[in-house]
What does this fold into?
Amino acid sequence: MNSQDGNHYNYHYSNNQSGAIRPQKSKDMKTTEVNESIIGKRCKFIFTGLMVAGTIEAINITKYSAEVKVRFDEPHRWGDDTFEYDWSHARLHDEFGSLRHLEIIDDQYQTIKVTFSETIKEINRKFTGDYKTWGVVNLKEWVDSYESSRFTQIDEHSAIITSEYNMEYLREWLSKNTPITAIETII
It folds into this structure.
């Protein structure tokens, strides 16, 4: 057993296509683990050589690969470009790709999918129109202001919200202050 930064990992060894042996952490994400249940979970993975954190927003499984879309907690710059999300992927037949560096980090978090009857853009206007009352300019900023909580918009009317211990209060606030069509508990 090896210790790294206080975490203990069981290492096993695998051969890559060239026959070289590399240590592999047992927490590596496998293509077989890519399914709808991981959407909304917090994770960390490698982007431009850096370990970054974010929320899984979508998955895509094709005939040849499994892909996971991760929305970053904060935008990252690479050269002249700014990235808000990236896809992590691996080939199905040999697991080669960046997916092996993705790790779920939020086993203690609760996750919900919220669908609003108005667009999130329309809801955001209410915040900007009454900034003195709310103190924030949009719904994401309001939800993210709850400690250990994250808001990730997935389309015009829906968002994934994760929270470690404030979900009860977030649900109550959302029900009282926003036009909700549905709240679906994911985790």
About this structure: The chain has two domains: 2-104, 110-185. Confidence is low (pLDDT under 50) at residues 1-26.
